[in-house]
UniProtKB/TrEMBL annotation:
Residues 77-234 form the IclR-ED domain. GO terms for molecular function: DNA binding; DNA-binding transcription factor activity. This is IclR family transcriptional regulator. SMART domains: HTH_ICLR (SM00346). Gene3D superfamilies: 3.30.450.40, Winged helix-like DNA-binding domain superfamily/Winged helix DNA-binding domain (1.10.10.10). Keywords: DNA-binding, Transcription, Transcription regulation. The keyword Ribosomal protein does not apply. It comes from the Bacteria. Pfam families: HTH_IclR, IclR_C. InterPro entries: GAF-like_dom_sf, HTH_MetabolicPath_Reg, Tscrpt_reg_IclR_C, Tscrpt_reg_IclR_N, WH-like_DNA-bd_sf, WH_DNA-bd_sf. SUPFAM superfamilies: GAF domain-like, Winged helix' DNA-binding domain.
Amino acid sequence: MSEAPDSDTKSGGGVAAVERAIAVLNAFRAGDSSLSLNELARRTGMYKSTILRLLSTLVREHCIVRLDDGSYQLGSMLLHWGGLYQAALRLDDHVPPILRKLVQETEEGASFFTREGDHRVCLFRVDSPRSIRDHIRTGDLVPLDKGAAGRVLTVFDPGLASGSKPPAQPYIITIGEREPDIAAIAAPVFGPQKRLRGALALSGPAARFSDDLIPAMSARLLAAAADLTRRLGGDTTLFDSWDAAGRSAA
């Protein structure tokens, strides 16, 4: 095992000790109740002596808890920070920039929908720069059973899709379902505890959603959905697993 020598700063401008402390915290994964010193060393690639020095500070600041069996567990301070983050989190700060980027990349309209009873409401919308486009607007209410975004809000919501099998891919495509000659691709966006926060969608004339263009469009949409999920404190496992399997191959 090799490790860079200790130093206060790194050439990239970061602080080495802080980056190593974050690496220790990042070593914990979903499903880990606690980790031994050996496992922390294996996952971080750092010497045990270095980890022990970092753990001493992290334990003192309640970021890590040392259990009676000698293993380590994430501490209460992380929950406190998470609460502060959630309290300060506003969709307005995160959704519009992602929609604008999607429109720039695809030249199709991008929207973010949430569920309201048997309907979905468009909370945010950025129009396509093209003259022929889908004309949905912010505030529009659409039946939940019409269109890709509505289907995403149904299929990926545990409360609505109890017992049903999720799609093979983390997105849904519809053509002519909400309006004739209009197509859409939509993907779910999650928050903490795998809570469905909404549906991210691209929409436009069906002629521009051809078989040869859909793979690139869906890849950009999924990257955006994963980015927004990450910003909202959600788990991106669904997108990461799909990406690892090879979206284009599927």
